[in-house]
Please model this.
Amino acid sequence: MAVTLKDVAALAGVSVKTVSNVVNGYDFVKADNRRRVEAALASTGYRPNLGARNLRRGRTGFVALVVPDLAIPYFGELAALVISAARRHDWNVLIEQTQGVRERERASLAGLGPHMIDGAIVSPEALQTGDFDRLAPGLPVVLLGEHALDLEIDHVGIDNVLAARTAVDHLVSLGRTRIAAIGENRRRGTAALRMAGYRAALHAADLPAPDELVGSVDAYH
Model:
């Protein structure tokens, strides 16, 4: 039979409320009571019922991270950082890979609901504005990346045009005059924005942008 808070309280000689306060990390517990409760917890091997705790708090304890491909280093590192940050706030992370395929991204949105998660971080590549009609009402969502969508949803990204211009400006300041760009990909909006910044910076510096200095790629890794 599973150990309960009452069992721990009886062994420690304190109230159930005191045990609950210790288990939930509250500070306002007398040092002597805390030591007795911690000893009783260790002795009984008590483990909190996370499902019941989250139900009382009105949360699931999970957030979702939806990304194209964890094999791409950027998304692998992103996942590690999200998991680390979530752990500090007592959350777990559910990860879904979509390979940037619209139907898989749509299916991920449809499967995200408040009964499963408390919020979602989504890095879309193919989703369209209307696809978000599938999202559960009231579910907190943050979008990542440069896939532009006309939505009233928090969106975190960078200015790819400015980033590329800044990189080229730096090379120009070092006296470089033949500056190549590797990464053109007509299927990715991010690549188009970076190429626009690259060409704008060269034009501003009165430098040529011949096609032989632009390298195309099939995918980003």
The chain is about 45% helix and 15% strand. The helical segments are 5-12, 16-23, 31-44, 50-57, 73-88, 102-111, 160-173, 189-204. The beta strands are 62-67, 92-97, 119-122, 141-144, 154-156, 181-184, 214-216. The radius of gyration is 26 Å.
